[in-house]
């Protein structure tokens, strides 16, 4: 998708926000905070959380080396507007809408449909962070605009799709995904969910993260590789939340993914399959 078309689409979506009408919280959102007593609508429209997790996962997509790190997370929701780090939106209850990380808002909330837009900072890649990517060009930090849609098949089944574009033209390219989520267990204090999805990307994104330019073959010792657009990966995971008290809760999850198509064929890929897991604690109002 050309940058101009993406930018125009995103700006048009933002303009629609001034006419969007507030909707009542769904039954699923109420279940997501079962230990919290009913409050006036004004209070329900201001929610936030702070937390941290210990996570383990590959150094980069396709790496055979694992990395352990502590990840702070937070999220806030004021009316229709949300802002969150990666993983924060799901913990605060608007992850099922497909909001994801960054600043987001719902444009349409009609029956089972949700349509929204978001902006987030993409940190790119510092090629010196992993031995196998040293010598490659860095992928610059950029700003990504995202359009997402979610359809509730049932109160516990959700189907979502999204498109995310680098709007600053810093070689981040375009990515897209389709995901199916299922909340398969919920009680007064505990919730378990799982999901399956597939992602794809345009040639610019795959060249930035999986390509080897001819100018870098000598420094990397790898053959030149210039992938085209195609599938990126298929992924599966599950997670849980458990209330420890009125405000404190434990959360965690694990997942696996497998690179596909042009991404899997990259000489940078040491392992097409990977796994990740995390466990954390958070406080919410």
Automatic annotation (TrEMBL):
Keywords of the record: Cell outer membrane, Membrane, Signal
Coiled-coil portions: none
Position of the signal peptide: 1-22
Superkingdom as given in the UniProt entry: Bacteria
Claim: Glycoprotein is one of the keywords in the record: no
Compartment(s): Cell outer membrane
Pfam families documented for this protein: MipA
Similarity remark: Belongs to the MipA/OmpV family.
Official protein name in the record: MipA/OmpV family protein
């Amino acid at each position: 998708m050309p940058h101009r078309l993406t930018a125009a689409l995103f700006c048009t979506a933002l303009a629609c926000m001034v006419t969007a009408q507030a909707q009542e919280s769904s039954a699923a959102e109420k279940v997501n905070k079962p230990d919290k007593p009913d409050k006036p609508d004004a209070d329900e429209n201001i929610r936030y959380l702070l937390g941290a997790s210990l996570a383990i996962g590959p150094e980069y997509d396709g790496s055979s080396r694992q990395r352990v790190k502590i990840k702070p997370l937070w999220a806030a929701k004021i009316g229709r507007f949300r802002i969150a780090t990666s993983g924060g939106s799901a913990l605060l209850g608007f992850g099922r809408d497909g909001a994801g990380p960054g600043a987001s808002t719902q444009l349409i909330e009609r029956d089972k449909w949700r349509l929204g837009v978001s902006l987030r900072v993409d940190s790119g890649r510092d090629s010196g962070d992993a031995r196998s990517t040293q010598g490659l060009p860095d992928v610059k930090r950029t700003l990504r605009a995202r359009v997402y849609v979610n359809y509730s098949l049932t109160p516990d089944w959700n189907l979502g799709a999204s498109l995310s574009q680098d709007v600053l033209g810093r070689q981040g390219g375009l990515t897209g995904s389709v995901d199916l989520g299922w909340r398969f267990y919920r009680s007064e204090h505990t919730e378990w969910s799982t999901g399956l999805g597939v992602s794809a990307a345009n040639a610019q994104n795959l060249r930035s993260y999986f390509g080897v330019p001819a100018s870098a073959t000598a420094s990397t010792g790898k053959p030149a590789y210039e992938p085209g657009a195609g599938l990126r990966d298929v992924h599966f995971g599950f997670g849980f939340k458990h209330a420890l008290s009125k405000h404190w809760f434990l959360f965690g999850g694990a997942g696996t993914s497998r690179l596909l198509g042009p991404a899997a064929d990259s000489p940078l890929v040491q392992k097409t399959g990977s796994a990740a897991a995390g466990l954390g604690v958070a406080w919410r109002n």
